[in-house]
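Fig. S4 source data, part A: sequence.
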Amino acid sequence: MNIKEFKPYLFTGDISDYVSPPFDTITVEQEKKLRSSKFNITALSLPEYRNNGMSQEKLIQKWITENVIYQYNKDIIIILKQVFYINKEATTRYGIISLTEIDSMLKVHENTFEKQVMERKTVMRELNGEPEPIFIVVPNNGFDKIVRRYANSLEERFKFEEPSGVENHVYFLEDPDKIAKLQEAVMNDQGIVADGHHRTQAIKDIKQETGDSFWNYAMSYITSIYDNGLMIGGVDRLVYRINFEENLPKIRNLFDVTVERAIVEDNDIRVYSKGVFYKLVPKKFVIDETFGTKYPISTEIINQILFVDALGINKNDIETKVGYIYNTTDAINAVDMHECDFAIIIPPWQKDVFLKMTLDGVIFPQKSTYFYPKIPSGIAIYLKPS
């Protein structure tokens, strides 16, 4: 995988006023608060945000003129240290923000939605750049150790804490020799897009349509998949305008269904509806008839057996009847608050299973994985030179 340094655009002032969660994880409440800040990155990253009719290209030029953002005067790689808690235990993850070449050494593992790819293309075309990094993992057990060592030798440039409690510490690596060591460290690694499939596809499309070499590279956050601070969860589903209980007879023909009163963390799929958890285990003959010798992942079972075979939700209906949420507590609350009819709880991933399937070239359904902690948008912006 090829990476290189760049001259990022950075916000002046208190960074906490400008950053946001990645565009596709922002809740309605978060969006209202973020938009109340005049210069928040969401003004660039959300496609429906039109800033009183001003295009993103004009807005970014206005911000540059008014010194809201400025271009750093050296080519650097940004080091990001994130500190957060898992079961009350402090955990630290190290990674870098650099440019990554979009080529055969970068693998994707999820399908995309055409509409969301088009939205990302619109955002990046209007901006002539990328407002937030894609998230890449590398199967390199020594990469995080190198990054940690370099971070410990650098002065912290700024830090901020997210509402979720994740502390972000930012360092600038300017030393050409150390940058070369990082490039060498990942040169033979297959990079895997963890988060940002729609952005990655949008960049590929723009490059193919324009032939502009600027789009050969994407601003990316890179970390080791073996880092203890990298978590891979499932993406829960919210289902609208369908009564789960009314469909239970058809579901029981295809799944062994167990009623539970509380959530249990294991590798099985669960549905939450009207205060009750239902564990769904697909019957063996259904798996054999549907997938043959290949045992499918959870989202394939949901898409084909639960949605299509049991509930009659076809591919076109999925985009209108199914939503996605990244926190199981929020999914349960959405059902209890009658914001949806029921929720599907997706089990977390084992890293070795994910890595093997991805390197074998398996492409999962949309929204099959949730890598966290996420990388805040607004730490750096990558713009095409004037």
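Fig. S4 source data, part B ends here. The first strand starts at residue 3 and ends at 4.
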